[in-house]
User: Fold NAD(P)-dependent oxidoreductase from Streptomyces himalayensis subsp. aureolus.
Amino acid sequence: MTRVGFIGLGSQGAPMARRITEESFPLTLWARRRASTDAFADTAATVAAAPAELGAASDIVCLCVVADADVEDVLLRPDGVLAGMAPGGVVAIHSTIHPDTCRHIADEAAKREVAVVDAPVSGGGGAATERRLLVMAGGQEPDVARCRPVFETFADPVIHLGPLGTGQLAKVLNNLVFTAQVGLSLDTFSFADGLGMDRAAVAQVLAHGSGGSRAAAILAASGFNTAGLRQALPLLRKDVGIMLDVADTAETPRPQTLADLAAHTLSALDEPLAP
Assistant:
């Protein structure tokens, strides 16, 4: 079977990696913290001493680290994945990063005859466990097809958007819309409060009516506690920034309504909680 390497065993990546090994793909792991790999002691996964060793043991390497710099580090440093990976391998980037970073990495990988697929995900660790994560893939069709059986261990659907970078575009567009909807939801429930309405009942109406959104459902499920969204604020700000930078670089007019609503959300989540 295809040998898989996985780096990035956080709350999102760990369930993805566990699904891969549960489907009996030979899996090699590497992490900066030993505790991350110790959690897989009950599986058949092996642990590499360095990213290059993981690359040498893998046909496909999946990355689910946090940011552009993290992706570049584990791939391009002297003992990075590409230093060990054989020609013909594929790197699948599940992290949400700038499309330009994907293209830079692909240029470096091509020197070693390694392909790159950008495959950011949406849905959270629970969705990966239940095999219903969304994967948005960009890259050459044969490379995406080669990765698809691995992706389908934790994802449904797996959507191929087009050339390298289009998966990232889809992800940051999704996150721009989600961020805007968070602001709409916050205002909606605040408005309902002002009208003397029960916000829990309003949330039920939205869940079954045409005015509902994923953001409103997430807020309602949390008991209208914004702590989780506030914790995600740096990531939301990063992704909104990437989307708007891509638009500006492409000289495509910004979607001003979405941009304004997203800015409103980021500002609201950045405000201190009332005592």
